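Hi P.,

Sorry for the delay on this. The queue was packed all week, but I finally got your sequence through. Input first:
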Amino acid sequence: MLKNNVETFLACEAPYEDAKIVLFGAPFDSTTSFRPGARFGSSAIRHESFGLETYSPYQDKDLEDYDIFDSGDLELCFGSSEMALQDIEQRTATILRDGKLPFMLGGEHLVTLGAVRAVFKKYPDLEIIHFDAHTDLRDDYLGAKLSHACVLRRCWDLVGDGKIHQFCIRSGERAEWQFAKKHTDLHPFSFGTLQQLVEKLEKSGKPVYFTIDLDCLDPSVFPGTGTPEAGGVSFMQLLNALRLVARTNVVGTDVNELAPMLDASGTSTAVACKVVRELLLALCK
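Then the structure:
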């Protein structure tokens, strides 16, 4: 059984045995290709969450009404991506074994692979919904197969064709876009046909892993990230989209790529905190 963390995300203080959702941080950014700092994202979200109210007027829900447990940050090996991924997979597997929903705070986007490995082992018919500015479908980045630029390609290695649904994508090398046309369900620039996808997944009841790279947001809203990309969505567009996805059978989720020191105003961290609050509440049925 996991133990309480000293500092928790706002109101996420339920006993582990009672919790339906379990938070944990994956402070890792060793493969960041542009601006590092995402390793500090999870602790910043946790610390700054106390600037929010527990109540969401968007959803008329309050975190204090639900049982959520925050197990704190993992201690990850920065010298080995594979060792870090193994630790993330183990923590995710523990949470799943105990019948709870794992909610990971990154960290760079590579951390998603560790969680997906564990979820896929339990749910081999897994579908992935991916919000991001970038395709993340490179087969390697400067020779490295384990990179935040390759994370969805490594997830594809597990789940196969047609199981990865990508939204807001607006950046990637030509080969990635060509790969997506054949192997993933990619919707560039916006949330496109998300409503139709959600309705389809609701009917099927298939398990869904939901990963949010916060750089799907426009840099005018969220500049504190390693690879900002102009042309992103607004906060309200993201909020409406994540509430849609929460209607599906979400069995694991993550929010990643906040690099808090890259936005001295603190605005990006505040945005990330609100995204986490709203996603937590949307997942509380």
